[in-house]
Amino acid sequence: MSGAIEVAASLLEKYVYNGYSRCMFLFSDGQANVGMKTRAELTNLVAAYNNKGIITDSFGIGADFDTEIMKVLVNVFGICGSAARLIVRGKNGAVVTKIWGDKNIVAGASLGELYFDNRRSVLCEFTTSGTAVDGENEIETLTYEL
Questions:
Q1: Are residues 71 and 9 in the same domain?
Q2: Residue 74 and residue 47: Cα distance in Å, rounded?
Q3: Whether residue 130 is found in the same domain as residue 100
Q4: Model's pTM, two decimal places?
């Protein structure tokens, strides 16, 4: 398993394409019988590549694959979702006029893959009518869904 991970990671490090994720898919029975053999060693290996922006997805195959080791490899980077989009809409008379970095306002902002510890920023341009709700000092201008 460790050999396959290292070969795949070296290819992903060698061939970098801007705007694309670097992701490897590991199909294995989870039996680490050559190279690194412990969960800790494999977890550290996957974590090191994850810190370099290389994502590992693992798939267990065979009748007796090691479920625990395959789950450990996936949970190293804590992916929560992929192909995520943030839909931003104006509220109380506000109109979103631009989402920086994205061309289609209706489709929303592309966030790609999301991890448990990610923080993302989306820069929006909008116009507002400036009408506040009675008794409030602020205008709520945006609503969003993920």
A1: yes
A2: 10
A3: yes
A4: 0.48
Residues 10-57: tens digit of each pLDDT: 999 999 888 788 888 888 777 777 777 777 888 888 888 888 888 887
Q: How far apart are CA 110 and CA 89, in angstroms?
A: 15
Q: What is the CA radius of gyration of the chain?
A: 21
In 3D, which of 52, 40, 57, 77 has the Cα closest to residue 4?
A: 57
SS (H, E, C) 61-74: CCCCCCHHHHHHHH
- Total domains in the fold of the chain: 2
Element (H, E) at 44: helix 39-51
